[in-house]
């Protein structure tokens, strides 16, 4: 008999989990409290239902080839970065293609998830749900929690002195959908993450003035890299290898130099504050809005008055109408009992960010509670692929006693300041994907690939680390993976080439001849000069006697 798996939530993580259950011949039942799938990607005009949704203008910040399910590429006509409507369409296509919707029970809220009395032997759970006022109880062999990390707004008003005296409008970005209601107002946006940057830019088009407050600063990335290619496509195994082997100080110096060459962050008030961890946002328009005066950068808030805001640098902005806090979210698991409820909120002690350490049986997986410097969708899929194989007994994890001992030790070291708390840091995308797929047996072997299929190996190692790489071998192998990798640039360029201009033959120009004959002429000239006694007199004492002529080329300045 197939094991029954409860999947809580039908967003990106939930769809990943349903699909992976079916791939392993498990029997999933997904509980979704709204009337549709897609989670926060399902746009709604208002926030009255208390659900976190995307705002209307949102555009994805990870390109399509790097943010798709590993056996279901985007159609080639999809833009590389897309609106939330387009992205939701992709989720719908995925769900329909694999027949996932029949396993979802909509308008169903999970009230409790508790261990059965014989849990230590069976690993089973009692799940109580409610659908339109009617409660139901069922037994499941495993549970996958896919509620995400954007459940409740984090609104730390107590950290802002005087906020209760402020008479203007106060809201969290969760409530923000469209800019229309803010026309002509003076607005302060608190917090500079991706959401804070997006909202500040959008409001700057209709507001009287937008102020953007940040404690830390940030590096601002563009969606396009040099040459106009999606910036995510430079996330390669080759670069990942260099980052691991080269000194971190050199990597940071190189990165800072490159970023400031594109945009001097200090001049724009965006530079990282001393002692703060570097972070990144993706925003193509924020620098321009700052340059045009539509957005004014400010330091952290010191105090509020009835209508003004005083900042840490001593400056004051008067007549503020609206304050929008983009201060993140809190996640919780109200359907669990203690101590499981508290343990699951501590991302750093979850085994590989998936399994709670205190369970005798590994039949509970937390899917999607991760921060990556890459696609969360891809991360949730590989978490689900691994978790379902653990449920089936095809993969194993260390015993709970060992995991709890390690978790307790880690918490103590963090408390004593011996090691840093990295729970808020973003995991490296390639490293984490390799770690999960190695557990599954789906991580490609690069040396073996170079022997068997050099062309494919070249793309895998030097090209973008797209999700298809993890469908080349092992469980879940997909026959279309090789072709998907070799055609990924075709799908990237397809939506850009909407206007093809025929190339006319160009007449041969002087520059053409210079390029064709310049190098040979230069080499011959150098050889003649080398034989010249006058030249030898000039360089005597500067060059070794047996100095090969071709080495003189190194003395020619190279264009950077």
TrEMBL record:
Which keywords has UniProt assigned to this entry? Answer: Endoplasmic reticulum, FAD, Flavoprotein, Membrane, Microsome, Monooxygenase, NADP, Oxidoreductase, Transmembrane, Transmembrane helix
Q: Gene3D superfamilies under this entry? A: FAD/NAD(P)-binding domain (3.50.50.60)
Which GO molecular-function terms appear in the entry? flavin adenine dinucleotide binding; N,N-dimethylaniline monooxygenase activity; NADP binding
Biological processes annotated in GO: energy homeostasis; negative regulation of fatty acid oxidation; xenobiotic catabolic process
Q: Which reaction does it catalyse?
A: N,N-dimethylaniline + NADPH + O2 + H(+) = N,N-dimethylaniline N-oxide + NADP(+) + H2O
One cellular component term from this protein's GO annotations in UniProt: endoplasmic reticulum membrane
A Pfam family cross-referenced in the UniProt record is: FMO-like
Broad class of where this protein is predominantly found: endoplasmic reticulum
What InterPro entries does UniProt report for this protein, alphabetically? Answer: FAD/NAD-bd_sf (IPR036188), Flavin_mOase (IPR000960), Flavin_mOase-like (IPR020946), Flavin_mOase_4 (IPR002256), FMO-like (IPR050346)
- Family stated for the protein in its record: Belongs to the FMO family.
Q: What is this protein called?
A: Flavin-containing monooxygenase
Species of origin reads: Mus spicilegus (Mound-building mouse)
